[in-house]
Design goal:
The chain contains eleven helices and 13 strands. The chain has about 375 residues and is an alpha/beta fold. Strands 1-9-8-5-4-2-3 form a seven-stranded mixed beta sheet, sandwiched between helices. Strands 7-6-11 form a three-stranded antiparallel beta sheet, with no helix packed on it. Strands 10-12-13 form a three-stranded antiparallel beta sheet. The protein binds pyridoxal-5'-phosphate.
Length: about 375
């Protein structure tokens, strides 16, 4: 099927098949011939590091998102870390991070030497709560310099960038997006990659645009910042690689991953549309239930890395899904500030919404190859 037809979303014959939490198999089967050919070209060329597909992918991602500059790197974590380094984030700096996120966001901040300041999240969107952020700014330890807001687009939903941008401008702060889960998302027509001045995304295999290994990218309209990141990913050298300008590291996306991602990108539009349809179907099926899906405010389109709901009886619903053989996850069930590595970051009074979501969050199957019948089967088990 090398003609890249959009996925057959409603193929009824799939309805009785086992429901997958994620589907890495179908896109592989759809693209297998293309991917093998692209990989063979790379192998034949021996251009394993920064062969032509890397620059091609960067152009394609720039075109896809509208970002002026795309710098691919070895992982989403490196994208976060290197973009912060390039902006001069380091010891003594406070970086504001939502507490309801994957540990990589906080790890990347700590790796720069800066101090993560955990911020609670909104009970409906599950994204950084701008009011709590205001409070953390007002009560910040005097020894720290407030420098950067690191918003996270949790489960694929963009954070409230207009409000964050306004606050950042008022307070003289930098703003970044951890868009590891939100490639393909948009807000009022602006795509993920241009919603914040600097965006970091991930190509980990299970992310909306997933490769067959690790990978990530920094997206920005700032040419100087992009050049700095390009230097950092290649040992801090200049473009011609004759001079070391600064201490850097090795964080290159390898050519094989770029070739795979270029092939996967061709399916992306149809895949994202299918995710949106399945999300809409979940929302319709769950409308009269006690289960509350992540709120998608007006003007927002999620990348739908995951479909997450909150329910007071999440543990009971999890048991029911288990019994019915339906896969699910309970992401961030152990809040970061309760874990050994980050316990010292717990604020007085805790982070009540994050702690509540840890108890009530339930992530249901979501991928472009679900069928409406499968979504209905999941919702039926949830008791609707
Ligand atoms: C996956 C993820 C990352 C890290 O990306 P990697 O490519 O695995 O390094 C960072 N932040 C969030 C929110 C993620 O989900």
């Amino acid at each position: 099927m090398p003609d890249h037809a959009p996925p057959a979303v409603h193929a009824a014959e799939h309805d009785r098949s086992a429901i997958r939490f994620l589907d890495l198999d179908t896109p592989y089967r759809l693209l297998k011939q293309d991917i093998l050919r692209a990989m063979e070209t790379v192998l034949d060329s021996h251009a394993f590091i920064h062969g032509p597909p890397v620059a091609e992918l960067e152009s394609a991602l720039a075109e896809h998102t509208g970002a002026a500059h795309v710098v691919t790197v070895a992982s989403g974590t490196d994208a976060l870390y290197l973009a912060m380094l390039a902006q001069g984030i380091g010891p003594g700096d406070a970086v504001f991070v939502p507490a309801y996120t994957y540990c990589a966001t906080v790890n990347a901040v700590m790796h720069t030497g800066a101090t993560p300041v955990l911020v609670d999240v909104d009970p409906d969107t599950f994204n950084i709560d701008v009011r709590d952020l205001r409070h953390r700014l007002d009560t910040l330890d005097r020894a720290l310099r407030p420098r950067l807001i690191m918003a996270v687009d949790i489960f694929g939903l963009p954070a409230d960038y207009p409000a964050l941008q306004a606050l950042a401008a008022r307070e003289g702060l930098l703003l970044m997006a951890d868009a590891a889960q939100s490639f393909g998302a948009s807000l009022n027509g602006t795509r993920c990659g241009r919603l914040a001045p600097v965006t970091a995304t991930s190509f980990y295999p299970t992310k909306p645009l997933g490769g067959y290994g690790d990978g990530g990218a920094i997206l920005t309209d700032d040419a100087a910042l992009a050049a700095h990141c390009r230097s950092l990913r290649w040992h801090g050298m200049d473009d011609s690689r004759t001079e070391s300008l600064r201490p850097g590291t090795n964080s290159r996306l390898d050519t094989l991953q770029a070739a795979v991602l270029l092939a996967k990108l061709r399916l992306f539009h149809g895949e994202h549309a299918a995710r949106e349809q399945m999300a809409a179907h979940y929302a319709a099926c769950l409308r009269d239930s006690e289960v509350r899906p992540q709120l998608i405010p007006e003007g927002y389109h999620s990348g739908w890395a995951h479909y997450t709901v909150r329910a007071p009886n999440a543990a009971h619903l999890a048991d029911k899904l288990d019994t019915a053989g339906i896969p699910f996850k309970r992401y961030y069930q152990q809040p970061l500030h309760w874990q050994p590595a980050f316990r010292h970051l717990a604020p007085d009074g805790g982070l009540p919404v994050t702690e509540q979501l840890a108890k009530e969050g339930l992530t249901l199957p979501m991928h472009p190859y679900l069928t409406t019948g499968q979504v209905e089967r999941v919702c039926a088990v949830l008791g609707t």
